[in-house]
What we know:
- This protein is α+β, with helices and mostly antiparallel strands.
- 21% of the residues lie in helices and 26% in strands.
- The chain has a 5-stranded antiparallel β-sheet.
- A hairpin with a 5-residue loop joins strand 7 and strand 8.
- Helix 3 (67-83) packs parallel to helix 4 (177-192).
- The longest helix is centred in the middle third of the chain and has 17 residues, at 67-83.
- The structure holds zinc ion (ZN).
Amino acid sequence: xxxxxxxxxxxxxDTVKFQQVYFVLDKEFRLLWVGGEWDDFANANGxxxxxxxxxxxxxxxxxxxxxxxxxxxxxxxxxxMDVQEPLKIDYRCDSPEMLRRFQMTVQPMKEGRxxxxxxxxxxxxxxVPLFPWRHNPHADEKKCSFCNRVxxxxxxxxxxxxxxxxxxDDVAFMLCGDCEHRVEEAISAxxxxxxxxxxxxxxxxxxxx
Length: 209
Ligand SMILES: [Zn+2]
């Protein structure tokens, strides 16, 4: 993911290019195999030089820019490794011109490895393109790496499409409370062997389609 999640790709945002990205991780979160549209995906997410040959055997966590998202990814993958059952969760990874919904599936494999698949599920052009943004850990404005909502100081989380061209240039990626809760619920449900409560997959808030 964000990191797969600094979602800038002004050059490719006018086409729906990312269809599927997948990778295999070992217990140390090393990337053993990478496929699909990884190169484009990495470029879109701030990993300018993170081409496939460069990332093999590196840690996935080195390609995730913020601590919240790293922690969420570790907990999701470890739950699948422990329980040996697949887990699905949706997230958004917009480009400045397009809302994009992905579904991430973490699937257990042999010998403690997992397969992580990111499928593009939906894409819509924004009526007003967002201003391109970049991750800055010191930025006052926050952006959730799972739902892409933005939080200005003293305000509630807002959808990026509601901001139009007032989207901040610099944002510090993190997880909003709602997404933190969704991640925890996905993990709890998997560990408890039950269906998750609420929308773990199927979109986000009122713009669910
Ligand atoms: Zn969120």
